[in-house]
Design goal:
By secondary structure, the protein is of the alpha/beta class. It has 1 helix and 19 strands. A hairpin with a 4-residue loop joins strand 18 and strand 19. The longest helix is centred in the first third of the chain and has 27 residues. It is globular.
């Protein structure tokens, strides 16, 4: 009986936490009212992030630098465990005290009507066009043209959609 009551209380607290995080994210970031953060307990937004209309995100990390932004367009379908990171360590001074190791920051722009599969990593400076598919488990290091399917490590064009 105790386990049953504990389970009910735990689930109610978890739901309240998800609602609170969703409300906080929608205040903190530019997220269209029709965008869905499906598994918000597994979504981390940091920096300057914009999410367009009717886009859904299942889970992942979306992190811009202090001086950069991540823009995700409309009608995008973003899978689980997707990492979109707009900054990286400088290769010359990649470790050490924070004030002595610079970061490299660049915007990331994801166009409209894109499908980004599970476990994708998109690095700083990448621009993804419109109507693309990024295959699961890909690492996107270069721009992706409109109407293409890319995949692999690093991601390469597999074929054109038109």
């Amino acid at each position: 009986m105790f386990e049953f009551i504990f389970s009910i209380v735990y689930n109610k607290l978890q739901e309240a936490s998800k609602k609170q995080k969703n409300k906080f994210y929608r205040k903190q970031f530019k997220i269209h009212t029709t965008a869905s953060l499906n598994h918000i307990e597994n979504i981390w937004l940091k920096g300057n992030v914009e999410i367009g209309a009717n886009t859904y995100i299942n889970s992942g990390r979306f992190i811009s630098g202090l001086n950069t932004k991540i823009i995700i367009g409309e009608w995008c379908a973003i899978g689980h465990n997707v990492n979109v990171i707009g900054w990286t360590h400088d290769i010359i001074k990649s470790t050490g005290p924070l004030d002595e190791r610079p970061t490299l920051e660049k915007d990331i722009i994801i166009g409209n009507h894109n499908w980004i599969g599970t476990n994708v990593f998109i690095r700083e400076g990448v621009v993804i066009g419109n109507n693309t598919i990024i295959a699961a488990n890909s690492v996107v290091t270069e721009n992706v043209p409109d109407n293409t399917i890319v995949g692999g490590i690093p991601a390469k064009i597999i074929k054109s959609k038109i």
